[in-house]
Design brief:
Blueprint: H1 7-35, E1 44-48, E2 59-63, H2 64-71, E3 76-79, E4 90-94, E5 99-102, H3 105-113
Antiparallel strand pairs: 1-2, 3-5, 4-5
C-alpha cells in the first residue's frame, strides 16, 4: 500500500512488477526458440513457464507452431496449468499441456513494450 493509503496504486504497482517478471521468462523462451528453430515446426520442444513467480522454471512441452501462436500477440504469455493469477490476467487459451493468458491495462502496456518481437 502506498503512503497515501490507496490500494489502487499498490495493486497497479504489483500488476506492473508481475508483468515485468513474465516478460523476462518470455525473453528466455524466445532464446530457446531461436536455438531450436532447426528442429522442425511439429517437433516437441520444452519451454519455460512464463508465470509471474520469479523462481518458477516449470517446463512446458509444445510444438513450434503452438509456440508461434502464443507469440502472435505481445500481451500473451505461456503458463503451466495452475500458474495463472486471475487478479492480473485473463485466460485466452486452455490446452492439455499449457494455458495462454493475456495482460491488459498498465500490465498490457508493459507486455507490449517488453515484447522482443515488437
Amino acid at each position: 500500500m502506498s503512503w497515501s493509503g490507496s490500494t489502487v496504486d499498490s495493486s497497479e504497482e504489483r500488476e506492473e512488477r508481475l508483468a515485468y517478471n513474465e516478460a523476462i521468462f518470455r525473453s528466455l523462451n524466445e532464446r530457446i526458440a531461436s536455438l531450436e528453430i532447426d528442429f522442425g515446426r511439429n517437433a516437441l520442444h520444452d519451454f519455460i513457464c512464463e508465470c509471474s513467480t520469479p523462481d518458477c522454471f516449470e517446463r512446458i512441452t509444445l510444438t513450434r507452431v503452438e509456440y508461434e501462436l502464443v507469440r502472435n500477440d505481445g500481451t500473451h504469455f505461456l503458463l503451466a496449468h495452475g500458474h495463472e493469477d486471475i487478479e492480473i490476467e485473463q485466460t485466452v487459451t486452455l490446452s492439455k499441456n499449457y494455458i495462454v493468458v493475456a495482460k491488459d491495462g498498465p500490465a498490457g502496456i508493459i507486455a507490449l513494450n517488453e515484447d522482443p518481437r515488437a
